[in-house]
Amino acid sequence: MASMSASGSWSAKDNKAFERALAVFDKDTPDRWSNVAQAIGGGKTPEDVKRHYELLLRDIRHIESGQDEKPEAPVTKWC
């Protein structure tokens, strides 16, 4: 399923490529976001991937702060 953000549509394939690229191009890599964008392909720009990264960090901080409600486990009835 694709997700929408300010940086456009991100498919599951895009997100997997993004994860892999982040593992290769760490924060000390020169031109990190250009390299990540090139590794993902699909027309993503360095600005797109940097924004996607920043949104993910924001989401993580939000979850870790306890502000995010966790869904209750679904109840399964066996009849």
Automatic annotation (TrEMBL):
GO terms for molecular function: DNA-binding transcription factor activity. It is found in: Nucleus. InterPro entries: Homeodomain-like_sf, RADIALIS-like, SANT/Myb, SANT_dom. SMART domains: SANT. Residues 8-57 form the Myb-like domain. Residues 5-61 form the SANT domain. GO terms for cellular component: nucleus. Keywords: Nucleus, Transcription, Transcription regulation. This is RADIALIS. It comes from Trifolium medium.
